[in-house]
Design brief:
Structural class: alpha+beta
Distance between the termini: 15 Å
Radius of gyration: 21 Å
Strand order of the largest sheet: 1-4-5-8
Number of strands: 10
Bound molecules: flavin-adenine dinucleotide
Strand content: 5-15%
CATH class of the largest domain: Mainly Alpha
Helix content: 40-55%
CATH architecture of the largest domain: Up-down Bundle
Low-confidence stretches: none
Order of helices and strands: HHHHHHEEEEEEEEHEEHHHHH
């Protein structure tokens, strides 16, 4: 068991840090305040391979292990969790298209997506189907060589500014559950698609979130990912990696907050001494660092289980997502507390990191749903033999 990163991995993480320092750090607060979606910067990250980190090489991806992808996301999220989180969603959708898309779909979009020239959204959630995603109602009806998609999606990240939508829709009868769901690659400007207003959010302000409605949207059958009825499985496989990515965005945000707090403890003086002299604050810092290291290791463990094709990889991904997003939020909150009133004002990055990290406990499966996944498995036979 080797917990050290290789020299190559460290160099890769450093290239992400350099990119983040040059291209994200100086602008993140402005993008947040003004609600700017930095598409050019995302495309620049694509030039470094960051838009197709684990996508197959056949579409121009780097086909890296998930663990290596976390190294990149963590470095970027330390300065801008919101933009980084969008890049992770784009990576997830691109991997889905590259893994299950037909030859024509991969040829049409693959390289544009891995290079960051075009962007993708992941469309699972509906107004009436959030945690219970398998109850989704958007229909895809076969019509000759095409499908006609009708229904609506809610909370779609990037919607209105992306080029390809990975849409989960029901091809089976109403009430057919997970087995009746299929996944499609849909051009974002297809006739019949309409976008709702940009949601006003607490955080994640550098990326738009919108509802999308589909009215008889005609899509060639070649745009089906995998086979009819595979869609829910594909969506969940996407989310295994997505959960590692979102967990990593929380670790990155927390690391950014922790490093800022470490510096502040030396700079700020009260009662004639630096804050660093107060043992209550020293202990707080010690707990933040300890929990953050534990969370990071858990995410890396889940990533390595996913890379190894472990039978319970999804359970580890759920555990890592639950733990790291809770720890990440708490570390950001404690770092804000260490800054006193200054933590609450926008001149410092703490309140933004906290606002951005909060949603990680909600999306890509809420942390309650992560517990449902873990508990369901733990109550089956032999769970303690494989999960330990
Ligand atoms: C900013 C943002 C971006 C998003 N981006 C995307 C995106 O790009 N694509 C996409 O498809 N979706 C996206 N989502 C949707 C997100 O995944 C859902 O919001 C999430 O899955 C929860 O669904 P819901 O909001 O309908 O909550 P609900 O499912 O209504 O849940 C409400 C509460 O009940 C709890 N709950 C529900 N069922 C159970 C249960 N069985 N046991 C215990 N507790 C339960 C939940 O944990 C939650 O606390 C995004 C959401 C947000 C806020």
């Amino acid at each position: 068991m080797n917990f050290e990163l290789s020299e190559e991995q460290r160099a890769f993480a450093q290239s992400a840090r350099d990119f983040a320092l040059a291209e994200l750090a100086p602008h993140a607060a402005h993008w947040d305040a003004e609600g700017i979606f930095p598409k050019e910067t995302i495309a620049q990250s694509g030039e470094l391979g960051f838009c197709g980190l684990y996508a197959p090489e056949s579409i121009g991806g780097l086909a890296l292990p998930r663990l290596d992808a976390t190294l990149v996301f963590e470095e970027m999220a330390a300065f801008d969790p919101s933009t980084t989180a969008f890049i992770t969603i784009h990576n997830m959708a691109t991997w889905m298209l590259g893994s299950w898309g037909s030859e024509s779909v991969r040829a049409q979009w693959g390289e544009a997506l891995t290079s960051g020239a075009k962007l993708a959204s992941y469309c699972l959630t509906e107004p009436g189907a959030g945690s219970d995603a398998a109850s989704l109602k958007t229909r895809a009806l076969r019509d000759g060589d095409d499908y006609l998609i009708t229904g609506s999606k809610a909370f779609i990240s990037g919607a209105g500014s992306t080029d390809v939508l990975i849409v989960m829709a029901r091809t089976g009868e109403p009430g057919s559950g997970a087995a009746g769901i299929s996944a499609f690659a849909v051009p974002a400007d297809a006739p019949g698609i309409a976008y709702g207003k940009k949601e006003e959010k607490m955080g994640w302000n550098s990326q738009p979130t919108r509802t999308i409605s589909f009215d008889q949207v005609r899509v060639p059958a070649a745009n089906l990912l995998g086979q009819e009825g595979d869609g829910f499985k594909i969506a969940m496989k996407g989310l295994d990696g997505g959960r590692i990515n979102i967990a990593t965005c929380s670790i990155g945000a927390a690391q950014g907050a922790l490093s800022t707090a470490q510096r502040y403890l030396h700079e700020r003086r009260q009662f004639g001494r630096p804050l660093a002299d107060f043992q209550a604050l020293q202990f707080k810092l010690a707990d933040m660092a300890t929990e953050l290291v534990a969370a990071r290791q858990m995410v890396r463990l889940a990533a390595s289980k996913l890379d190894a094709g472990h039978a319970d990889a999804s359970v580890y991904c759920a555990m890592a997502k639950r733990f790291a997003t809770d720890v990440g939020f708490e570390v950001c909150n404690q770092a804000l507390q260490i800054h006193g009133g200054y933590g609450y004002i926008r001149e410092y990055p703490l309140e933004r990191l906290l606002r951005d990290a909060r949603v990680h406990q909600i999306l890509e499966g809420t942390n309650e749903i992560m517990r449902v996944i873990i508990a369901r498995r733990m109550l089956q036979d032999n769970a303690t033999e494989t999960i330990r």
